[in-house]
Amino acid sequence: MDILSAAWHLLIGMDADLMAIIALSLKVSGLAVLFALILGAPVGAALAIWSFPGRQVLIVIFNSLMALPPVVVGLSVYLLLSRSGPLGSWGILFTPKAMIIAQTALIFPIIVALTREAVKPVFREYRGLLISLNASPLLVLRTVLWDARFGVVTALLAGFGRAVAEVGAVLIVGGNIDGLTRVMTTTIALETSKGNLELAMALGIVLIVLALVMNALIYSISRIGLRFQEVRE
Amino acid sequence: MNRLAFENVSVFRNGKEILGPLDIELQTTGITCLLGPNGAGKSVFLNLCHGMFAPDKGRVDWNGVSAVSTRNDRSFMFQTAAVMRRSVWANVAFPLLAQKLPKSERMERVAQALTFARLTDQAAQPAASLSGGEKQRMALARAWVTRPKVILLDEPAANLDPGSTHALESMLHDIATKSGVIIATHNLPQARRLAHHVLVFANGKLAANSDADTFFTQTHTGQVADYLDGRI
Amino acid sequence: MKFLLALLFMATAAGAQERSMVLASTTSTQNSGLLDAILPIFKADTGIQVFVVAVGTGQAMRIAQNGDADAILVHHRPSEDAFVADGYGIDRVDVMFNDFVIIGPKSDPAGISDVKTAPQAFANISSSQARFISRGDNSGTHLRELQIWQEAGLMPDYDGYLEVGSGMGVALNLASGMGAYILADRGTWLSFQNRSDLVLLFEGGVEMINPYGYVRVNPVRFPHIKSAEALELGNWLVSDAGQQAIAGFRIGGVQLFCANALTAPDLPADQQGTCAADALQR
């Protein structure tokens, strides 16, 4: 009960620090999902559409990468962005940019795999039509991606869920710097380590509520779309 | 005039010749019906006509140019037409998108095609919500909207009730006044109603090639007789 | 790809450019609240924003060795000296110290509350086979713990000895849950909230002194380092203003860190001022 009331007070109190932390969480994970979508959806669709040597291998690799622990992704991106690493000259380690890159890498395989699953049945149906119309590869890609958009939204939600909930990657590349790279999950980890279990749990509840609101929002938007587009068979 | 030429064409599947060797020249005016039992090669022939794929041997040309490179001159309608997860309007507009027509032109042509298919009222509906007959009419409108020189249809009425079949056939009669129509069917009464010209396939080979009046009045022998009498 | 990068940078473009630097420090300085208390004063004095990455001493040094921090504030003298000797750091200065304490269950099954020295306390814990939580993360606290085991002439490999490979707070949470003994820095202990029946059982003695050093990362080795800012922070920490800020930081009326910049850490207690004498006598 203590925890619930603490969570409630956090939510209605909403001091500026907490607002900034929540805003950064949403911004980092939101942009990561956006970038992963822009990069990953075409790859997923391509894997569903075209067969080329090594396609099976790629599919297996992307499916396995979905299970990659966030810490490993974080460590890889850290080594990449470190001043001693290949992209060190960018100088973006311990900034939100680094966190966005790490989370993009983390959810890219999810977007690829789930987009491929969503596009596969659509392409199976459209294949003959697209060939008969002499559709260009770009048009094929655009068409199946657009017509599989509800499956792609699911991929997006799954990706956002994983990004906003992970702590390992953002902790390593962001450094949990107060006022700069501190997000909800790293705050929860920090408060737990300080023994502030009630505050940590209250923040956890805030995170859950936010995730709930986001999901409900996107779900209802896609429902509106579905009324016009759903295949009723 | 559209002259279709098959030159020494063969298609193999798993090492077995499923069509050919085939040599044929056709002037595709009016409606040409492809008849024959299942597996006789009608579908493969139709796919080759459109240039869906190239034959393993020989050439398929339209007016001297290979079918594969001139697909945009023709339209192809499958037995179960793909119902795109979009509105009826967007389904019919899609081929014009593929041919990169300007928007105003697209709007006009789609409106005409929808009127032709009597689907104007359903234009905004999801295509998936149409009945079976309406879906096939939409598919025919989608095939017609590009103003093709030739439309190829693979058993378009195979799963339709008589009323829907009639609606589709009357659209085909209209289309045939402007474009060539090649239609594969194993529905003999339908062939009688539609055909100006008839090709009969049996075992991957051409068993008959004649104009419809002659074909349906003369007496046949061999495989064609077996087919017409329902023995194969 | 270029477009995406441009988008990334636009989306996260910082506002007004201000002077800033990255300080890799230990969880003990951050979790205790010290840095939150003194860095705003430093910013008010100099306008420099210090971004703190709080990790274990081992990881802090590693981050600095990669050139990813501009300075470190850590607490393991041998590692700090090696860091300077290897050319990664320059100008190590003493900033402050506090002390370690041994925490354990109120019932104190190993009976360490009345022993004289820390090694003796560890020996009692080991001989009674009581549970002991070790950080096991190469942090300053972990390295000190190993040093005390060594001074006790013991190898900590009995059944109740658990290496958890975590930060101070997480380790304290575990000790709290298991009713185990643990070596902790006083600052983190005082600010730790989830104590259950843990109490402070042993304190005092030279083994328990915990000095913090500030080392700038070598700008010759890493030209991109913000060496001017790092120098200013170093100078400020040992200045009167900095030392007063450190000495003035209190939790529940208790002073957590003794400012000792102007004295050598190896001096006997009576020459280190009252704060050090307190720590030794406690």
Structural features:
heterotrimer, A: 233 residues, mainly alpha, MetI-like fold, 0% strand, globular, C: 282 residues, alpha/beta, D-Maltodextrin-Binding Protein, domain 2, 2 domains, ten-stranded mixed sheet, two-stranded antiparallel ribbon
Would you kindly provide a written description of the structure presented here, covering whatever features stand out?
The complex is a heterotrimer of chains A (233), B (232) and C (282). By secondary structure, chain A is mainly α. Chain A has one domain (19-198): MetI-like fold. Chain A is 79% helix and 0% strand. Chain A is globular and about 65 Å long. The N and C termini of chain A lie far apart (48 Å). Chain B has 232 residues and is of the alpha/beta class. The model of chain B has no long low-confidence stretch (mean pLDDT 91). Chain C has 282 residues and is of the alpha/beta class. Chain C has two domains: 2-98 and 210-279, D-Maltodextrin-Binding Protein, domain 2 (3-Layer(aba) Sandwich), CATH 3.40.190.10; 99-208, D-Maltodextrin-Binding Protein, domain 2. Chain C starts with a helix and ends with a helix. The relative contact order of chain C is 0.19. The interface between A and C is medium-sized, with 32 and 33 residues.
